[in-house]
Amino acid sequence: MGSLNTFSKLVAVTLLTLSHSSFATVGEAASEAIGFSYPNGARYAISLSFDDARSSQVDVGLPILDKHGVKGTFYINPQFAKERLAGWKAAVKNGHELGNHTSSHLCTGNFEWLRKDNLGLEQVDLAWLKRDIESTTQFMKQQLEVTPRSFAYPCGNTFVGRGVEVQSYVPLVAELFKTGRTWLDETGNNPTYTDFAQLAGNRMDGMSFSEIKEMLDLLKEENKWIILAGHDVGEKGLYTVDKEALNALIVYLKDPKNGYWLATVDEVATYIEKHR
Ligand SMILES: [Zn+2]
């Protein structure tokens, strides 16, 4: 009985120690998140990203970014990029980041206009998707002399297959790129917790500056890294970032008193990886 008693005491002490140390780890992680800081003492990080390589990004978006001397992240679809090849080459020279957005832009087949040969992501496998992603990387290397380090999931979808055969393609993206960004998320990225292979992305299409600012105020707590995502740039629309809103947003983000570090997705990911 005596030895059993000692044994149970030992178990109890061990459990207490274990639970204490795991609580301590959680506590440390939480306080680190609150204390995380970005270059120049910024409290939040933000990236401006644009999907598909639509021509209005070169014609309207890039001149706005260049006027303010800030850098964006542009996720390339070769078919769109071919329409403004010289413009995209100039963007690379000006220090903007170009990422991969697949060649097929395949999403769930629920999007009727995005099906390819009657296929949606429900009908393809990881090998199909890997070839599709790699063909965009090839295009970018050959035509734009850039090797992408970032990826954006078309429509934010991260799977192939259906039901019990569903597979995530997040591990494939993690293997091929430093970061992968999703779409229409409800949070920003917590520097301590976020997964670089499925970074949250928040919509900026169709919003006025005050609506974007209101959203940022809700998302920014705990030293978040917010990645805004848009499509066309011009007059505000369902898939168009309003050019006046973009201009006002950049002015706001560049003002140090607002606490933001504005940098490309790859720059912020590299910084967080080093410091978290
Ligand atoms: Zn897209």
TrEMBL record:
Cross-referenced Pfam families: Polysacc_deac_1 (PF01522)
Top-level taxon: Bacteria
UniProt EC number: 3.-.-.-
GO MF entries: hydrolase activity
Keywords, in A-Z order: Hydrolase, Signal
Signal peptide (UniProt feature, chain positions): 1-24
Catalytic class of the enzyme: hydrolase
InterPro entries the UniProt entry points to: Glyco_hydro/deAcase_b/a-brl, NODB_dom, Polysacch_Deacetylase
Domain NodB homology: 44-276
Keyword Oxidoreductase: no
Annotated PANTHER family: CHITOOLIGOSACCHARIDE DEACETYLASE (PTHR34216:SF11), PTHR34216
Protein name: Polysaccharide deacetylase family protein
Organism per entry: Pseudoalteromonas obscura
Lineage: Bacteria, Pseudomonadati, Pseudomonadota, Gammaproteobacteria, Alteromonadales
